Structures
1.
Amino acid sequence: MTTHQPAGFKLSGVGSSLPDKVLTNVDLEGYMDTTDEWIYERTGIRQRHIGSSTTELATIACQEAMDAAGVGPEDIDLLLLATTSPEHICPGTAPGVANELGLDCGALDIQAACSGWVYGLPIANGFLMQGMNRILLVGAEALDKITDYHDRGTGILFGNGGGAAVIERDPSGVGELLGWDLGADGKFVHILYAEHGDVLKMDGKEVFRQAVTAIQRTVQNTLDMSGTTVDEIALFVPHQANIRIVESAWKKLGIPMEKTAMVLENTGNTSGATIPLALHEALREDRVQNGDLVMFIGFGAGMTWASALVRWNGS
Ligand code: COA
């Protein structure tokens, strides 16, 4: 390993996973006083996936990302797992996932709620600059374990899923992490939280308000750090919480929806998994070319927020 070298930054393989079982808005009409139309109109969500486990969803997404990158367990130097729905209070979920994958390296959880996967991008970059060659960054959630599907506020939003990327050094000079921003404001812990052994509780209106503010702030900070403008960016991959949140923030920032990767309609909010899930879908649709600028934007409980701008040289 060499240390402290400019490393380059490349997402060389991306994978994702969703449980087979689907819970539609129409199904929810049987659980609570709501309608498919109301949910879709207010959130942009039609269905979410439930079942499986955080470990299983993380393992499948990671394996798919490793296969796409053409690497094996011996090539991975670190596993970072962003999750809001860990298997246990202790230990972290990452060591179990590493075991399933046959990895022989460090493994740790990132607990930054829905911002976790984006927090992982500059963390991974730091380790590449310290001399690591390849890092697996996965977001995975079994949110059905902490969601009350009879609650009209939270039950309409959350679902399960996983998304992962192999991140590696890129000596070509194309792939690079051009800018990033991390933030947290613990004044807002009480607007979205789950106590030990309990389900998620949320002040939806306040979360909506704070999310729109956080997105604007973090996108601007990353644009400033990288000396980039909105117009230069080919694709925005925001956290998929509620399409109305994204639309409100985009309107203020002047970002067109056509440049946005969205999977929310079919997945609901899968917290730490939404961004790699949406990225994977955009790659399948061939929406990203090498050399393109791609921005990732996370926000969520804490409040936490994060954004990162990558010059793409990917899978
Ligand atoms: N189905 C049908 N009607 C509902 C409903 C539901 N699931 N939930 C609330 N309502 C009704 C209320 O009874 C109220 O009716 P009234 O005007 O007759 O009194 C009306 O809709 C508005 O209720 P309110 O609780 O103010 O809803 P809202 O407009 O704030 O929408 C959310 C609720 C959850 C969709 C919205 O607050 C939201 O998405 N917030 C952000 C949450 C989020 O993204 N969290 C994750 C962040 S990472």
Note: The mean pLDDT is 97.
2.
Amino acid sequence: MSTFKPELKKYELPPLPYNYDALEPYISKDIMDLHYNVHHKGYVNGANAAIDKIEKIFKGEVKDHDWAGVVRNFVFNSNGARLHNVFWQNLGSPGSKGGGKPGGKLGDLIDKQFGGFDKFKQVYTDVMRSLTGSGWTIMYYEKDLGRLVFTTVENHFINHIVDLPIVILLDQWEHAYYLQYKTNRNAYIDAWWNVVNWDDAEKRLQKHL
Ligand code: MN
């Protein structure tokens, strides 16, 4: 009989950094309420349930398990929890914390790499529009080469999410916009430019320069 008692830390749902109506009119209060309290909380709970199962497997209490399924379930939910943690911080009230153009190092990098914000906005919008189905568009910093990189992520699956130097990201699951924008996902993508928090993006970039 094994006496090993694993102590695996659990995920927590961090508080939303603003009120549910803070991003209106671009993202409605009802969407924020459901998105945070149902969807984000669901990923946190799902990740913790996956950890409970892994603990039981370690203890020998679950004999008949499918590691591929266990790992897939853990990755799906834990990445979901982590991506939403960044997503809320990465947004801000239009006109005060959200929208406008980035300054600082990020603004310089965008100017150098894209020849100005307008060109960057056009290209990044095209990338966001190119994602079909549920997923995320992420811009991260490729540190060794000193450049910004765009990627699209299906569902929540991406390797090394813990260390990915995310600068900005957009949740493009239907639950993020359907209540307000219905099938017009491009309108949601266009609206996002009014609530993206460039100060948060700059802070994220600065951590990796
Ligand atoms: Mn979501």
Note: The beta strands are 135-142, 147-154, 166-171.
